[in-house]
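Review form for a predicted model. The reviewer records the input and the model, then writes brief findings.
Reviewer: anonymous (R2)
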Amino acid sequence: MGKVGFGYDFHRLEKGKGFLLAGIKIPCKYAITAHSDGDILLHSLADAILGAIGEGDIGRYFPPGRKFTKDISSVRILGYSLELARKKRYKIANIDTTILLQEPKLTSYKTRLSESIAKLCRIPVELVNVKAKTTEGLGDIGRKKAISCYAVVLLERR
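Model under review:
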C-alpha cells in the first residue's frame, strides 16, 4: 500500500550571504530568517514524509523557539523523519518538490539539489524532482521578501 504526504514551508528573506537548500549553500544576497538552519526544501520534505506516515509535522519533534532546535541542521530533521518511516516499514517511491523564489534563479542548481536529496534519502536520483518557480513579482515572494517550498512524497511498504 502506498501513502502520499504533502509538505510546505515558508520563511522570510533578509539581506545576507546565501542560504541552504537540500544542504547545499546557495550563494546570493539573501539569507533565510529561521530558528533552525532554514533549509525549506528539507523542511517541506520532512513534513511530507511525516504526513504520509501519520506522524504530524516537524514542529512536533523539533519545536521552534526551543534551545535544542536553535540552528539545528535540517539534514538531522530529515534523517529523523526518514527513520520514523523506516521503522513503520516504508520506503520512498518518489519525491516531487517546488521552490517558490523570485531570485536567485535556481536553474543551474536543480540537478545538484536532486542529487543531494537522493543521497540524503538513499534513493536513486531518478526518484527525485526539484522544480523552481517565481511568482512573477507578486506577493512577498515576488518582492524578494520570502521563499517557500512544496513537497509531495509517495511512500511504499517495504
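Findings: The beta strands are 2-15, 19-21, 24-26, 30-32, 90-100, 128-133, 146-157.
Further findings: The chain has a mean pLDDT of 96.
Recommendation: see findings above.
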